[in-house]
Design brief:
The chain has 139 residues and is mainly beta. Helix content is 0%, strand content 35%. It has no helices and eight strands. A six-stranded antiparallel β-barrel has the order 1-2-7-6-3-8. Strands 4-5 form a two-stranded antiparallel sheet. A hairpin with a 2-residue loop joins strand 6 and strand 7 (111-117).
């Protein structure tokens, strides 16, 4: 394996009433809030076609996470056996990429109001993708 370094340019940031990690639910479906996705002007044309009611996957860079963590007690429960971070949804991991499924509530220029979102205010947005509506193949 070669050592490569990749650069990710955030396309925007999240505006949320959540400002502290301790206040945030573990998943958006566990009490997430409405929040605004603000896309930088140079990427705003990429929002064309997004409309109210769409389900989106928002990829974020969890900028306040621990990047040297490789094992965690799932959901912070000390009584749970340790697991590797790649088998959990822990925010602490080598590349702290957040994955959030949200629904569009409003589109206003280069901003999209969504819910439910558990990311804190100022979290960089890496990408936005639509949720694909199709049946999963059986294996």
């Amino acid at each position: 394996m070669t050592d490569n370094i990749y650069t990710i340019e955030p396309i925007g940031k999240i505006h949320s009433i959540l400002t502290e990690l301790a206040e945030a639910p573990m998943q958006g479906t566990e009490g997430g809030f409405e929040a605004w996705l603000e896309v930088a002007p140079k990427f705003a044309q990429g929002l064309f076609g997004i409309k109210v009611g769409d389900d989106l996957i928002v990829l974020t860079w969890l900028h306040r996470s621990q990047r040297d963590t490789l094992q965690v007690h799932p959901r912070g429960r000390q009584e749970a056996p340790l697991r590797g971070v790649f088998s959990t949804r822990s925010q602490d991991r080598p590349n702290p990429i957040g994955l959030h499924q949200v629904t569009v509530l409003e589109v206003a220029g280069q901003k999209i109001r969504v819910a439910p979102l558990e990311a804190i205010d100022g979290t960089p947005i890496v990408d936005i993708k639509p949720v694909l509506k199709h049946e999963r193949p059986q294996f």
